[in-house]
Write a structure and sequence with these properties.
30% of the residues lie in helices and 16% in strands. Strand 6 and strand 7 form a beta hairpin. The relative contact order is 0.14.
Amino acid sequence: MQASTRSLTADFTHFQPADTAPPAPIPQLPDAAARLAALTAQVTADLAMMGYATKPWVLPRAHLGQVVPDVVIIGAGQSGLALGHMLKRRGVTNVLLLDRNPVGYEGVWDTYARNYEIRSPKTITGLELGIPSLTVQSWFVALHGQAAWDALSRVPRAHWMDYLRWYRQIADLNIRNDINVMDIAYDADGVTLTLQDGAQVRTRYVVLATGMEGGGNWVVPDFIRNALPADRYNHSCEAFDASRFAGKDIGVLGAGASAFDATVAALDAGAASVQTFMRRPAISVLDLVREFENGGFLDHAHALSDETKWELGLFLSGLSQAPAEHHFYRALAFANFRFHSGAPWLDVRMDGDRIAVTTPKGSFHFDHLITATGVTTNMMLRPELHRLAADALLWRDRFTPPDGNTASARLNFPYLDDYYRFQPKTAGAAPGIDRIFAFNALAMPSMGGLAAVSISSHRFGTARLASGLTRALFLDQEAELIPTLAQVDTPCITLTPYAREMLGMLDCD
């Protein structure tokens, strides 16, 4: 199913477990507009002060008489913005970003995310490229004040999206919205993107910054999808208007973060009842991602052995992501909410105009279902990746699991190099495949788990990817290095007539 491009949003901040109602919106300071303008000016000045080695240096390349972008980034959400800005700060300015969503609605935060806060700690950095005035903290304090920032546990989701909108303004990148890429073809000289309207964009390099579902699609189990009309269920990571759940009985499959986000959305919308089911005997209360947020793992997990990466993936896949604390307690505050552990859905069918769900703990009837059943990573599910699915080196081509289980879906992830770059399945085949980089969920096994899907990956992962791209662009023009330097004719000393006379240069041109 295709998700629409936007959904309802709310503006909430953190509240303690004892709270039973959404917190009030955070007020802006009376002079917030002037303070933000002053911060914007400060960021501009700071960027100028850090301008060393940012001048453009990439020699232009043409195709059919037209200069082509050096890099196209597919996706202008937080990962695409971070990479585009870093490339610009490294002197690569001929970069184009394409995004399928309207302006200001890139990514998940104002489309289908429903959490009150982002899960990352408020102190997280990476997008700001080491410039304090460009941090989310500086932006938030400018609008709401230091006391409001100090009171936060995490950044509210709607505020994070507004920060990204401001960040886009600061980065001043070439972005085209409402663009769907339908095909990615590559050859030794470049990459050709075919868009939904049939137009083509030729470029030298491509980066997939398409988030969690960018390597596959959200999963609705077949036994649900095949049994119900399409309008009787939603995936928790679709954009939907929860107001249509008012007065209805809702069943939710799953007990992770997105399940509780959807549960609270339905309860807040006035659902008659919401019942959430999980197959595990106990809900997870761990968030191991926070344990990974250190300079060792974030900077060097890509260098782990394949064996350790595989075992790490097995360990993480055996854990359920804990729901956000605020939504967990928010759901429990409703008298019409019920939670069932150890209750997988065994059968789903229509029973008249109601949906019958069978579990080991009995049968239940609902008006609508929400499946918080995650994502499958399978490049064959995405038409634009079908060439890559056939040509790319996969994990199954390089690694055999210790238990010999070659049926694992994780073996179908691409086996990327240290710079997030695709490699050919057969050496010398598929020329140009190494011009494409995966800065999305496809990179998870190769990068040791976080890839570019988590905000925590931006500080180190973005820099390494940018280094891979600038390295490729620089080496592309190795043959032109000396001739280019030989054309430099701007003197660093202006010789006066007296100096020319002293040097015996009066007769020189």
